[in-house]
Amino acid sequence: MATTSDLRTGIIIRYNGILHRVEEFQHVAPGNWRAFVRMRLKNMQNGKVIEDRVRAGSEIDIVRVEKRSMQYLYRDGDSLHFMDTETFEQMEIPAETIGDPARFLKESELADVLFFDETQILGVEVPTFVNLEVIEASTALRGDTATNVNKQVTLETGAVISVPAFVNQGDVLKVDTRTGSYIERVK
User: Fold this and answer.
1) Can you give 5-72 as a three-state secondary structure string?
2) pTM (2 decimals)?
3) Secondary structure class of 172 (helix, strand, coil)
4) What are 133's strand-pairing partners?
5) Per-residue pLDDT of the chain in tens (187 residues, 90 and over written 9)
6) Nearest 5°: phi and psi at 97?
């Protein structure tokens, strides 16, 4: 059985009977008290984040998760369709399983699908950064460039993000899918 010394960021553990992803952990040894581990865990079913602490050295249940690279095909209502790149098997995954990063998925883009017990889908890991073209952008007004002014643009996936005023229609932008924020223009 694994102990708290085996904790790593990103692994899946069974905590209080529910699957959680370890978002953050810290080993704390306060003076002459017992050492403990402070954990920040994300529930894999509903996405809620909890913080808890356990005694250092206590047992934890690490769950084996299979990660398969799959190609995003298309969106159909509230579900996204993916194809396994090895077996060409197609599957439908609800958009709420992926969450907010689903709006940045471009057709034929690769993503990692997490499976538990070969059949249960735990989630989809979208690439951290994607390059997307701006298909709709308003023009900046004269004088707006003196201050740090942002405007809303629509990307090729339909996502709307806030960008600096100098971004124009046709530009390709690098976007962080975790936060939905503009990073830079891509040449």
Assistant:
1) HHCCCCCEEEECCEEEEEEEEEEECCCCCCCEEEEEEEECCCCCEEEEEEECCCEEEECCCEEEEEEE
2) 0.71
3) strand
4) 172
5) 889 888 898 889 999 999 999 999 999 998 888 999 999 998 887 778 999 999 999 999 999 888 889 999 999 888 999 999 889 999 998 888 788 888 899 999 999 998 888 778 888 888 999 999 999 988 766 655 556 778 899 999 999 999 988 888 999 999 999 888 999 998 7
6) -65, -35
Beta-carbon contacts of 137 under 8 Å, excluding residues fewer than 6 positions away, are 151, 153, 154, 163, 167, 168, 169, 171
Distance, CA of 111 to CA of 130 (rounded, Å): 11
What distance in Å separates the CA atoms of residue 95 and residue 123, rounded to the nearest whole number?
A: 10
